[in-house]
Write a sequence for this structure.
């Protein structure tokens, strides 16, 4: 088995053992953290931070978690809702007047958060993702593909710009700035939207699935991007996600960088009624809003059943989301548990069960914890 670094409660031994198995089976590297009651019971990492396996994965290694970033952006929106500054039932155009163009006057804020706004595809060049004014102007001028609120289609890249521009219009700050000041800073969480050059040395670049190269693209089967052809949507490649421009930009649906510890710490807020380590970020009512069912049915983009709350996927009594390549955050408020898995190793999405295997391993630990 691979060498595991970090610490863990003996009741949760199955979690680091599962991570070690991933690396032993060929994964380059990864990390997993489990928090219960806002405190870590697992904080481990293993493997390498580079494809050549010349650099060990360290305690402070960070990685692009792709669409797990959506849960951070959603949390920022929930904070503003909690403070009475954002109304989920308001038209988006109340905050962003230009958005009313092309038949979008009746798109509500909650539609943006639940993938029901009808704007799932990024139709511009990849390079425009790095230009906030250009990206948001493009989306403001787009017509919805369906009557907003009547159907869902995963807004893989567009959701972050849509929600993020509303937040910017309200606060005068970018999502990254707001998140750093109001969430990550108070909690001491090492998670970043818009990564500065001082962090470059500890980034683990994404490694394509075995047999693929950096031209490997996100697709509907990945559960994290726009559909395959025919479509006008731009395909995101691994080389794009590994580029400096991507790292520096704020793409609040997909360009967040952190480690398992920081993701689990932040999302423990929703597991623990809005307060972690004595720091209150949300009210208990604000946390419950995340689980208010907005849509249940077939997702037009993913081609599979989905249940969406306000910014989070709903899975029974749990909530969370996954990212292209394997990252996962899983929140179980009943158990006051948050689990996060991050990795630099992509796998074929059709056979990638790493996240659910870790959730099941953590359940073993909970069973033991309840018995003590």
């Amino acid at each position: 088995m691979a060498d595991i670094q970090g610490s863990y409660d003996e009741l949760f031994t199955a979690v680091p053992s599962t991570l070690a198995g991933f690396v032993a089976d060929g994964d380059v590297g990864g990390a997993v953290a489990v928090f219960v009651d806002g405190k870590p019971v697992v904080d481990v990492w293993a493997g390498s931070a580079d494809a050549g396996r010349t650099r060990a994965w360290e305690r402070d290694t960070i990685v692009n978690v792709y669409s797990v970033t959506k849960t951070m952006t959603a949390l920022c929106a929930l904070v503003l809702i909690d403070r009475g500054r954002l109304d989920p039932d308001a038209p988006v155009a109340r905050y962003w007047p230009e958005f009313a163009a092309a038949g979008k006057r009746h798109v509500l804020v909650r539609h943006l958060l639940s993938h029901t706004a009808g704007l799932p595809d990024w139709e511009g060049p990849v390079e425009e993702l790095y230009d906030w004014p250009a990206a948001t102007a493009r989306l403001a001028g787009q017509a919805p593909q369906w009557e907003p609120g009547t159907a869902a289609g995963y807004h893989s890249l567009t959701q972050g710009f849509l929600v993020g521009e509303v937040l910017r219009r309200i606060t005068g700050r970018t999502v990254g700035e707001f998140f750093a000041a109001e969430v990550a800073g108070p909690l001491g969480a090492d998670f970043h939207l818009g990564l500065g050059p001082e962090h470059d040395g500890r980034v683990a670049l994404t490694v394509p699935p075995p047999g693929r190269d950096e031209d490997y693209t996100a697709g509907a089967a990945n559960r994290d991007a726009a559909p395959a052809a025919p479509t006008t949507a731009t395909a995101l490649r691994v080389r794009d996600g590994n580029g400096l421009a991507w790292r520096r930009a704020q793409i609040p649906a997909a360009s967040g960088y952190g480690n398992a510890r920081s993701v689990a710490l932040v999302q423990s807020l929703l597991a623990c009624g809005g307060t972690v380590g004595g720091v209150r970020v949300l009210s208990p009512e604000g946390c419950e809003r995340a689980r208010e069912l907005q849509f249940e049915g077939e997702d037009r983009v993913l081609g599979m059943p989905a249940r969406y709350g306000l910014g989070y996927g709903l899975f029974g009594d749990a909530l969370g989301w996954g990212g292209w390549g394997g990252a996962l955050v899983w929140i179980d408020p009943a158990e006051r548990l948050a689990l996060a898995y991050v990795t630099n190793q992509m796998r074929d999405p059709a056979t990638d069960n790493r996240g659910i295997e870790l959730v099941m391993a953590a359940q073993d630990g909970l069973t033991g914890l309840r018995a003590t």
User: Anything to note?
Assistant: The radius of gyration is 19 Å. The longest helix spans residues 354-371. Confidence is low (pLDDT under 50) at residues 220-232.
